[in-house]
């Protein structure tokens, strides 16, 4: 885990399945907030979210070298190989297989970014 992200994540954090085939890493307070928001939804809307996020959630700590030992089910979900990429993504971090990240990053076009920025009023 990069040093900058270690400071932001804190000592304890939660790793779970993320979108687009990556793993999501939430600081303890962010994870608790996500749990509360999902649980506050009607069951018809929260059931799939609970199953997706909570069933794979893993409470993690960094070892002395700043590494995380990920369970096999999460490594398999994200298709992690020897080379990984860790990115900051607003209120959480994401762990990607390096090849998957490169392909995803290459798929992001200027037009897609421009559309998203227009939705924000830019």
TrEMBL record:
<dbReference type="GO" id="GO:0003700">
    <property type="term" value="F:DNA-binding transcription factor activity"/>
</dbReference>
<dbReference type="GO" id="GO:0005737">
    <property type="term" value="C:cytoplasm"/>
</dbReference>
<keyword id="KW-0238">DNA-binding</keyword>
<dbReference type="GO" id="GO:2000143">
    <property type="term" value="P:negative regulation of DNA-templated transcription initiation"/>
</dbReference>
<keyword id="KW-0804">Transcription</keyword>
<comment type="similarity">
    <text>Belongs to the MraZ family.</text>
</comment>
<dbReference type="InterPro" id="IPR038619">
    <property type="entry name" value="MraZ_sf"/>
</dbReference>
<feature type="domain" description="SpoVT-AbrB">
    <location>
        <begin position="1"/>
        <end position="30"/>
    </location>
</feature>
<dbReference type="InterPro" id="IPR007159">
    <property type="entry name" value="SpoVT-AbrB_dom"/>
</dbReference>
<feature type="domain" description="SpoVT-AbrB">
    <location>
        <begin position="57"/>
        <end position="100"/>
    </location>
</feature>
<comment type="subunit">
    <text>Forms oligomers.</text>
</comment>
<dbReference type="GO" id="GO:0000976">
    <property type="term" value="F:transcription cis-regulatory region binding"/>
</dbReference>
<keyword id="KW-0963">Cytoplasm</keyword>
<dbReference type="InterPro" id="IPR020603">
    <property type="entry name" value="MraZ_dom"/>
</dbReference>
<keyword id="KW-0677">Repeat</keyword>
<protein>
    <recommendedName>
        <fullName>Transcriptional regulator MraZ</fullName>
    </recommendedName>
</protein>
<dbReference type="GO" id="GO:0009295">
    <property type="term" value="C:nucleoid"/>
</dbReference>
<dbReference type="InterPro" id="IPR035642">
    <property type="entry name" value="MraZ_N"/>
</dbReference>
<dbReference type="Pfam" id="PF02381">
    <property type="entry name" value="MraZ"/>
</dbReference>
<dbReference type="InterPro" id="IPR003444">
    <property type="entry name" value="MraZ"/>
</dbReference>
<dbReference type="InterPro" id="IPR037914">
    <property type="entry name" value="SpoVT-AbrB_sf"/>
</dbReference>
<keyword id="KW-0805">Transcription regulation</keyword>
<dbReference type="InterPro" id="IPR035644">
    <property type="entry name" value="MraZ_C"/>
</dbReference>
């Amino acid at each position: 885990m990069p040093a900058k992200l270690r400071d932001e994540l804190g000592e304890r954090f939660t790793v779970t399945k993320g979108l687009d085939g990556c793993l999501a890493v939430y600081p303890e307070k962010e994870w608790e907030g996500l749990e509360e928001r999902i649980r506050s939804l009607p069951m018809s809307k929260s059931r799939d979210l609970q199953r997706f996020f909570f069933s794979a959630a893993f409470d993690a700590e960094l070892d002395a070298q700043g590494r995380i030992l990920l369970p096999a089910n999460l490594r398999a979900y994200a298709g992690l190989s020897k080379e990984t990429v860790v990115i900051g993504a607003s209120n959480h971090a994401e762990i990607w297989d390096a090849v998957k990240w490169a392909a995803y990053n290459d798929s992001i076009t200027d037009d897609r970014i421009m559309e998203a920025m227009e939705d924000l009023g830019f």
